[in-house]
Design goal:
The chain has eleven helices and eleven strands. The chain is α/β, with parallel strands linked by helices. The chain folds into two domains: 104 residues, 3-Layer(aba) Sandwich (Isopropylmalate Dehydrogenase), CATH 3.40.718.10; 152 residues, Isopropylmalate Dehydrogenase (3-Layer(aba) Sandwich), CATH 3.40.718. An eleven-stranded mixed sheet has the order 3-2-1-4-11-10-5-6-9-7-8, with helices on both faces. Strand 10 and strand 11 form a beta hairpin. The longest helix has 26 residues. The protein is globular and about 60 Å long.
Length: 320
């Protein structure tokens, strides 16, 4: 009989430095919004067992209990808030944050738009002066350091003014994740300014705005094509000499379509793991997918822990 094929080796643990940094901090009280399927409920409990979050499960109690029973999960240690449906789950979770009972949100089995609508509600949401944006934090095999990609999930066709906040959110995230330096590449199809390609003009404007202090905390360069943003060899061939070219660790995409294509290319062609976080609201918002590995889910929660800690430190400095 033919010998059975050797199973592939288990994937290596990803994000070890990220998880190690988060493990030194207290767990973040997190309203888990509508965890009514196995994937989202298990993700929340995995993060709780890892000491990253202290979940409050917000959703229809009977549905959550049924999922837990089928999966053999014990929910007795966790607080639960009963709601009739997903819209109410999102509203109640946001209300918990506004009441000071939760310091983060975690998306469950509801649509992202339902949750975001409650977050950005002008009267009852979690708006700040900053535009809400999404960041992926990628661990790419063969790449020396993590890559932040923004915005590939929330802002469809951001204006120049909105991109200022997208860039600043990503820079702040880089600092929260303890990057030694935020090196920001404003991506386009080419590294030269071309009036027929609006993203190149916006990239140049963003770099000048950073020069004038309108964007702070990072080193910007752009427009840059993807190759000369992350490959020193490509940058040298094009004779691009800057502290960012070939060394970028933050990639700002022109629009959601290009960002989504880049993110999925990294995930499905380069076997990259992606942690997801929404920034710009008053608390971090953890976005996980049913397709995420356990490592990626835990990494998303670890990112939220580090962001929450950075916000506490910033608030303490203001008070002092």
């Amino acid at each position: 009989m033919p010998r059975a094929p050797t199973p592939p080796p288990p994937p290596p643990d990803r994000y070890p430095r990220l998880l190690a940094a988060a493990s030194t901090l207290p767990p973040v009280v997190t309203a888990v919004v509508h965890p009514c399927d196995n994937s989202s409920l298990t993700a929340a409990l995995d993060a709780a067992r890892a000491g990253l979050i202290r979940p409050i499960l917000v959703g229809p109690r009977a549905r959550i209990d049924a999922v837990a029973k089928q999966a053999g999960l014990d929910l007795s240690p966790f607080e639960r808030v009963d709601t009739p449906h997903s819209h109410a789950s999102a509203a109640q979770a946001v209300a918990l944050v506004r009441a000071g009972r939760a310091d983060a949100l975690m998306k469950g089995s509801l649509h992202t738009d339902e949750l975001m609508a409650e977050i950005v509600n002008r009267d009852t949401g979690l708006r700040t002066a900053r535009r809400v944006s999404h960041c992926f934090v990628f661990d790419v095999p063969g790449h020396a350091e993590p890559l932040i990609v923004s915005d590939a999930a929330v802002n469809i066709a951001p204006t120049l003014e909105e991109k200022v906040d997208i860039v600043q959110n990503a820079i702040d995230l880089a600092h929260a994740l303890r990057f030694p330096e935020a090196r920001v590449a404003i991506l386009s199809a080419t590294e030269t300014v071309n009036p027929r390609i609006p993203s190149t003009i916006e990239a140049a404007a963003l770099c000048k705005m950073a020069d004038r202090g309108q964007i702070t905390g990072g080193v910007l360069d752009g427009p840059l094509a993807l190759d000369n943003a992350i490959s020193l060899a490509a940058a040298q061939i094009k004779h691009i000499d800057s502290p960012v070219a070939g060394r970028a660790n933050v990639l700002i995409v022109p629009n959601l379509e290009s960002g989504n294509l880049l993110a999925k290319s990294l995930s499905f062609l380069a076997n990259a793991e992606a942690a997801g976080i929404v920034l710009g609201a008053s608390v971090p918002v953890i976005l996980t997918s049913r397709a995420d590995s356990v490592s990626a889910r835990l990494a998303s929660c670890a990112v939220a822990v580090l962001v929450a800690a950075a916000r506490r430190e910033a608030a303490a400095r203001i008070i002092a």
